[in-house]
Amino acid sequence: MNCIELEESLVESEDGSSREQRAHLSACPACSGLVEELRSIIATAVELRGSAEPSPQVWNSIEMVLRQEGLIRPQPTPRPALSSFSARWGWARWLAPAAAAVLLSAGILLYRASVADKLAQQVSVAAPALDAGMDDNDFLQEIAAQSPQLRPVYEDNLRRANEYIRDAQSAVNEDPNDAEAARSLMDAYQQKAMLFNIAMDRSLP
Amino acid sequence: MRPEKKTLTDRRQRRGDELSEAAAIERAKQGDAEAFQVLYDMHKRRVYSLCLRMTANTAEAEDLAQEAFLQLYRKIATFRGESAFSTWLHRLSVNVVLMHLRKKGLPVVSLEETTQGGDDDSPKKDFGTEDVALAGSIDRLHLQKAVESLPPGYRSIFVLHDVEGYEHNEIAKIVGCSIGNSKSQLHKARMKLRDLLKLQRAEKAGKA
After folding, report:
1. Least CB-CB distance to A41: which of B5, B48, B194?
2. Which of A3, A9, A21, A51 is the best substitution to test chain B (most B C-beta atoms within 10 A)?
3. Are A86 and A37 members of one domain?
4. Three-state secondary-structure class, residue B82
5. Which residues of B touch A52 (CB under 8 A)?
6. The domain that contains B155 carries what CATH number?
7. Over the stretch A104-121, which tens digit does the pLDDT of each residue have?
8. Same domain membership, residue B154 and residue B73
9. Could you tell me if residue B175 is inside a domain?
10. Model confidence pLDDT, tens digit, residues A153-170
């Protein structure tokens, strides 16, 4: 078996383990290296499985369509009077941070359209105010009270949104004139606002 | 399909304890929103990654993942559990992606005849030449980038076989080619990836 035949034989016997292949490989460093590199590619390929995370918007869109098509149906869940009151009005507590996040995003958008170099300044001024108005723990406790199974999902998404905000904020701080960083910060706050909005939708009677 | 590695994350494990997949399926059949989300969370990475690797485009991958889950939820009432839920979902996702590629006019398997010579797209033989060694040094991100650069026909077969774990006879049925063609395309895809990875390595060395 020569080098060409060895390579052709890898179509059927990819690991180079047949008797003829082994005989050639033991005497040919080039082909031996080739087989080793292909093995390495095959081994690394498995790591690509399930390695990417879709954005939160994907589930949001799916849920919207499911509701529009009537595939999601309201579940009858009897609650005690106090809990019922909380379920009915608890969502109102999320209105403020959700609205703040939406307003901040809108403000950023409008501002960006007019004066790009002041954009980051506005973001950095407004963002701490939004952060101060939000209590993530209260939010998660409310989720846990109403849908314990969803708490880990919201916790995870909230953590990601906060990390995104921190990263984007850091980029804006580094270069206040970086429009891309400012856009990322706006996206980050929109993601957080979306989380509150989804939670609020679930709480409505 | 080869069995997948059991690598549940802590979070997934925790949620799995709270609501098993079987229970979530039954509740989703009743229209329970939380059950839909639990199922989505269990499988979103696998489905989205498949779509992303096959299309090499984030926006398309998100649209296709969304479409796959919607098709799944619309049909979930018909799921009787004869096959694994994940197998059902992944096969459905593959079909959604292949349909999309066909609509775009992209080949799901390379059109070249594997038995004929003069293949312009085939990797060049480089036996006996000075070479950048790759073995033992391929990381996921570099491979991911190289897979994105593969021609669509090669990419489909590589993703289905080496990433997703489908066997050649399954791939032949899914994409509508012969088993021999699937094997040949896979080998060429791997050889092309090897070239692309070496190119990446050489470019990186040139910049340094």
Report:
1. B194
2. A51
3. no
4. coil
5. 45, 48-49, 52, 61
6. 1.10.10.10
7. 555 555 544 443 444 445
8. no
9. yes
10. 788 778 877 887 888 888
Classify residue B129 by burial, with Cβ atoms within 10 Å: 0-12, 13-18, 19+. exposed
| A150 vs B14: CA distance, rounded Å | 12
Per-residue pLDDT averaged across B115-130, rounded?
Answer: 44
- Distances in Å between the Cα of A122 and the Cα atoms of A167, A171, B10 are 17, 14, 39
| Residue A127 shares a structural domain with residue A41 | no
In this structure, are B162 and B79 located in the same domain?
no
Residue B38 has pLDDT above 80, yes or no: yes
Instruction: Classify residue B127: in a domain, yes or no.
Output: no
Is the C-alpha dihedral spanning B114, B120, B123, B125 positive or negative?
positive
Please identify among residues 30-89 of chain B the ones whose CB lies closer than 8 Å to any CB of chain A: 30-34, 36-38, 40-41, 44-46, 48-49, 52-53, 61-62, 65-66, 69-70, 73-74
Q: Which of residues 150-169 of A touch B (CB under 8 A)?
A: 150, 152-153, 156
- SS3 for chain A, per residue? CCHHHHHHHCCCCCCCCCHHHHHHHCCCHHHHHHHHHHHHHHHHHHHHCCCCCCCHHHHHHHHHHHHHCCCCCCCCCCCCHHHHHHHHHCCHHHHHHHHHHHHHHHHHHHHHHHCHHHHHHHHHHHHHHHHHHCCHHHHHHHHHHHCHHHHHHHHHHHHHHHHHHHHHHHHHHHCCCCHHHHHHHHHHHHHHHHHHHHHHHHHCC
Q: Tokens at residue A121, please?
A: 């300044």
Question: A17 vs chain B: nearest CA distance in angstroms?
Answer: 16
Total domain count for chain B?
A: 2
- Assess if residue A132 is contained within a domain: yes
Q: How close, in Å, is residue A71 to chain B by CA atoms?
A: 6
Task: Check the CA dihedral B82-B85-B91-B95 and report its sign.
Answer: positive
Provide the pLDDT for residue B1: 64
Residues B16 and B98 both lie in one domain = yes
| Rounded CA separation B204/B208 (Å) | 6
Contacts of B93 in chain A (CB under 8 A): none
Residues A90 and A143 in one domain: yes
Half-sphere exposure of A37 (CA within 13 A, CB side): 22
